[in-house]
Amino acid sequence: MKLLMSPASPFARKCRVLLREAQLMDTVAEVNVTTSPFDTAQDVAAANPLGKIPALLREHAPAIYDSRVITRFLDDHAGTAFYPSARLWEVLTLEATADGIMEAALAITYEARMRPEDRQMPEWMDAQWAKVSRAVASIDDRWMSHLNGPLDMGQIGVACALSYLDLRHDARGWRSGNDDLAAWHKTFMQRDSMQATVVPA
């Protein structure tokens, strides 16, 4: 199988971390692609009509896409338990929260990079950051016991989301007022899977 991805994509990073945690690196090859909302790579469009990465190319089966679909598939394929049935709804909710952080943060990135400066809307970017801030504060307030439990996709998603904030929006300071979450992220970043997927400077 092949994973179409970009190292800078937080959604792709979720899949890449899972590949390493589930010992699937010999099963799935990572294929770095260059694509954008304005110029979709042909192989990406062929795999996903929405033109988004990541996408997973499977042998003798249609490609699948959306990071949450891919990670569920890989978890099932590997026979691991990153979506444990005993706390499935909590894992899915935390993963959805992490994905929402990524979506809002990515929207800010695109606004700043894709629009001419005189057409950018700072108020809109601030509104996206407000979503990020609420979500981060909610995780710090409500989810620390889960984050400190057995490894699952909720934790991986949160770690990748926070790392993307560090990569693209560090100046906005997500750590302020979220001390427990910041400490957890610092520790989680020491995992081999996270270190192996750090975006090159």
Automatic annotation (TrEMBL):
GO terms for molecular function: transferase activity. InterPro entries: Glutathione-S-Trfase_C_sf, Glutathione_S-Trfase_N, Thioredoxin-like_sf. The keyword Methyltransferase does not apply. Residues 1-82 form the GST N-terminal domain. The keyword Kinase does not apply. It comes from the Bacteria. This is Glutathione S-transferase, N-terminal domain. Keywords: Transferase. It comes from Loktanella salsilacus.
